[in-house]
């Protein structure tokens, strides 16, 4: 052989032809898919589809070239020239041929060198290329036409006229409204053929109106508000307005009647996101033995979109009683899933929080929506992980009732301090009445706590006053009541009195009554603990006095002083609680058998008249039943100021505007009266009508009148 024949040189032209044909055949499909992606999802989706198509084309071309190997070359050469005598494989053999094979290879080598390698490539498939590019061009033309028609505004819709116009006066003949929602909603712009508009708050509303004949000036007149001038252009009269508050408007023009129909502008407020707990199933979970982590799963939903990033607040309460240490940490978590409904999964490592028996770990998620500006942030419900305390040993046979732990309500003084400090911080933003009301509420909590502690000092609870003892024969127990109290009722009534003295008081309770407790079993507090508790009660009293009079700053030092005394008491090794029995008030013997009941029976209950808070709609509703004139301006102002609490404020405003145009119309007065009926404040209670007994009761009543 004159030179060595390398298969790569002979295969290169055929491989280039095969790769180019694969790219040309499938390129139209990639272009159509990229155009569809651009049309539906924007430039980002279109570029992504084009990039993926390019990768697919490269893979298809590589697959086609790999099919052209050494075997394909040998078969193609043998088929190309019969002079090679089916011996082309000898020229491209990898192993060294034998003597006879080498002679044959040298004999046909010159014949092979006369063949052009480019002639071995497959010819262009013109039919496949023409079909692919023809279909691709048709598809692209259809996409462009569809996009052009979709982007073009629709023709103005015919307008309906409710009021007849004078000959030659301008009248509205066509209308088209374009609504562009805020960008944060992700909603596309749309067209509306109606002049009654309901759209997300903050949307841009664009009107295009047609008049015949053309007026000199035209405008959109908001009922009770501004006037938006219409500008004349090529397509008609145009105007734009940012939708912020509900309103009514009219289309007016020079020469048109003033009583044109009113149309609605109703914004749809962006609702705050909603947060719910998916895991754990219960709001209170108990920590298991050996548990190292705690998984919490929240789900947040919004009408438009939820921000991907949220803040998880983890609060730990470590300790018991008044010796509780609070700590708070914040973590940033990332949500997954659809933008309108995201899930936030958090695995909390418990070792890093320093929990101990009796501790609580509270997790709360704060999420926000994508509203711009001023996104709405919502703090969801909290879930609690509790490490329970070990069960205390059961003590039996202890007469002194020794307590190793304070009662549960001994930790409430700290909460009173927290509420007071929060009230002091919010004081600049509160009115005098609101401050007094909240301070009085905290004072009531302080009072209840003082009474609970006072039980251990022998104080009587003020919430449950005991009824006075009988002071006359009328107050004496009845024979039936005395029958319920006898010697065999299960109580120890004691022995009968010996040598009673007529008129002597003696120990009436010990002589004629019985105690349900034993004085020996009622153990009092030790003197030191009793003195500390007395000082704590005095501090609580001073704090309560200042809170009930609306002075939280003055009450705060006394609250801290009471807390210090309580913590000192808690450090005692043992606390003995007395068993408090009932103590009857002394009998006033001067009123005995006199029959005087002054100061015993309370006065009768007084009925508080129901006051109508919203007198404006109630007065207008009553006046609409007759021919009286109505203060429509005052009623309209009331509706605008209370629109948030009304179900359909625009409907009420439309009824007021209609009555203003025709004050004597009975139909419009009744329509407004019906609208106001849904606005009136309901009384707190209603008297039920007594059952008339049906047909049988009716016959009975008729029989009584005969």
Topology:
Blueprint: H1 7-41, H2 43-66, H3 70-80, H4 99-113, H5 126-151, E1 157-158, E2 171-180, E3 190-192, E4 197-200, E5 204-212, E6 218-222, E7 227-229, E8 231-232, E9 237-242, E10 247-253, E11 263-268, E12 274-279, E13 284-286, E14 293-301, E15 309-318, E16 325-334, E17 336-338, E18 341-349, E19 360-368, E20 377-379, E21 383-386, E22 402-403, H6 412-426, H7 432-454, H8 479-483, H9 508-512, H10 527-548, H11 552-570, E23 575-576, H12 615-623, H13 632-641, H14 649-661, H15 666-677, H16 694-705
Parallel strand pairs: 4-11, 13-21
Antiparallel strand pairs: 1-2, 2-3, 2-5, 5-9, 6-7, 6-10, 8-9, 10-11, 12-14, 14-18, 15-16, 15-19, 17-18, 19-20, 19-21, 22-23
Report on the architecture of this protein:
With 706 residues, the chain is α+β, with helices and mostly antiparallel strands. It has five domains: 7-149, no CATH class; 157-268, Immunoglobulin-like (Sandwich), CATH 2.60.40; 277-386, Immunoglobulin-like (Sandwich), CATH 2.60.40; 402-464 and 522-576, Up-down Bundle (Four Helix Bundle (Hemerythrin (Met), subunit A)), CATH 1.20.120; 615-677, no CATH class. The chain has 16 helices and 23 strands. The protein has helices at 7-41, 43-66, 70-80, 99-113, 126-151, 412-426, 432-454, 479-483, 508-512, 527-548, 552-570, 615-623, 632-641, 649-661, 666-677, 694-705, and strands at residues 157-158, 171-180, 190-192, 197-200, 204-212, 218-222, 227-229, 231-232, 237-242, 247-253, 263-268, 274-279, 284-286, 293-301, 309-318, 325-334, 336-338, 341-349, 360-368, 377-379, 383-386, 402-403, 575-576. The strands form five sheets. Strands 1, 2, 3, 5, 8 and 9 form a six-stranded antiparallel beta sheet that branches. Strands 13, 15, 16, 19, 20 and 21 form a six-stranded mixed beta sheet that branches. It has a five-stranded mixed beta sheet with strand order 4-11-10-6-7, covered by helices on one side. Strand 15 (309-318) and strand 16 form a beta hairpin. The longest helix has 35 residues, at 7-41. It is flat.
């Amino acid at each position: 052989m004159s030179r060595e024949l390398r298969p790569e040189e002979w295969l290169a032209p055929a491989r280039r032809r095969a790769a180019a044909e694969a790219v040309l055949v499938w390129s139209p499909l990639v272009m159509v898919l990229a155009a569809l992606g651009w049309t539906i999802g924007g430039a980002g989706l279109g570029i992504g589809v084009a990039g993926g198509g390019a990768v697919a084309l490269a893979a298809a071309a590589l697959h086609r070239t790999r099919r052209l190997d050494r075997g394909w070359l040998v078969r193609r050469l043998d088929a190309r020239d019969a002079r090679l005598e089916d011996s082309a494989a000898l020229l491209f053999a990898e192993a060294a041929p034998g003597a006879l094979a080498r002679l044959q290879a040298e004999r046909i080598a010159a014949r092979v060198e006369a063949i052009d390698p480019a002639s071995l490539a497959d010819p262009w498939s013109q039919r496949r290329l023409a079909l692919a590019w023809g279909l691709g061009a048709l598809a692209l033309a259809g996409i462009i036409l569809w996009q052009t028609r979709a982007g073009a505004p629709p023709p103005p819709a015919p307008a309906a006229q409710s009021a007849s116009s004078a000959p030659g006066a301008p009248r509205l003949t066509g209308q088209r409204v374009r609504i562009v929602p805020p960008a944060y909603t992700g909603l596309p712009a749309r067209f509306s053929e109606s002049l009654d508009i309901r759209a997300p708050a903050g949307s841009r509303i664009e009107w295009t109106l047609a008049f015949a004949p053309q007026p000199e000036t035209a405008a959109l007149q908001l009922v009770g508000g501004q006037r938006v001038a219409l500008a004349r252009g090529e397509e008609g009269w145009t105007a734009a307005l940012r939708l912020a508050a509900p309103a009514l408007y009219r289309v007016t023009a020079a020469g048109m009647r003033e009583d044109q129909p009113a149309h609605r502008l109703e914004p749809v407020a962006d609702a705050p996101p909603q947060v719910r707990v998916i895991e754990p199933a219960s709001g209170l979970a108990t920590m298991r033995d050996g548990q190292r982590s705690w998984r919490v799963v929240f789900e947040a939903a919004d009408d438009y979109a939820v921000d991907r990033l949220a803040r998880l607040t983890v609060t730990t309460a470590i300790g018991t009683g008044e010796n509780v240490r609070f700590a708070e940490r914040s973590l940033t978590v990332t949500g997954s899933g659809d933008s309108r409904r995201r899930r936030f999964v958090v695995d909390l490592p418990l070792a890093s929080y320093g929990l101990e028996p009796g501790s609580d770990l509270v997790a709360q998620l704060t999420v926000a929506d994508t509203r711009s500006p001023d996104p709405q942030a919502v703090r969801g419900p909290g879930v609690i992980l509790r490490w329970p305390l070990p069960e205390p040993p059961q003590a039996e046979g202890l007469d002194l009732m020794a307590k190793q732990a304070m009662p549960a309500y001994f930790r409430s003084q700290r909460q009173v301090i927290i509420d007071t400090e929060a009230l002091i911080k919010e004081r600049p933003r509160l009115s005098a009445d609101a401050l007094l009301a909240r301070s009085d509420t905290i004072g009531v909590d302080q009072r209840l706590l003082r009474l609970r502690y006072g039980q251990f000092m022998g104080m009587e609870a003020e919430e449950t006053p005991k009824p006075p003892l009988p002071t006359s024969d009328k107050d004496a127990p009845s024979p039936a009541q005395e029958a319920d109290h006898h010697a065999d009722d299960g109580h120890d009534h004691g022995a009968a009195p010996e040598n009673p003295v007529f008129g002597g008081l003696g120990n009436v309770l010990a002589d004629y009554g019985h105690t349900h407790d034993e004085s020996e079993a009622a153990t009092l507090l030790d003197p030191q603990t009793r003195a500390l508790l007395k000082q704590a009660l005095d501090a609580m009293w001073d704090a309560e006095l200042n809170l009930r009079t609306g002075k939280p700053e003055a009450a705060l030092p006394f609250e801290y002083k009471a807390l210090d005394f309580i913590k000192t008491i808690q450090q005692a090794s043992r606390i003995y609680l007395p068993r408090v029995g009932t103590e009857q008030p002394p009998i006033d013997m001067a009123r005995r058998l006199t029959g005087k009941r002054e100061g015993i029976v309370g006065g009768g209950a007084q009925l508080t008249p129901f006051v109508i808070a919203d007198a404006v709609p109630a007065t207008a509703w009553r006046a609409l039943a007759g021919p009286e004139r109505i203060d429509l301006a005052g009623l309209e102002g009331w509706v605008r100021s209370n629109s948030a609490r009304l179900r359909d404020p625009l409907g009420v405003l439309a009824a007021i505007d209609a009555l203003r145009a025709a004050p004597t119309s009975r139909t419009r007065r009744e329509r407004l009266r019906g609208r106001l009926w849904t606005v009136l404040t309901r009384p707190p209670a209603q008297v039920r009508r007594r059952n008339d007994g049906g047909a049988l009761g009716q016959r009975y009543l008729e029989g009584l009148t005969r």
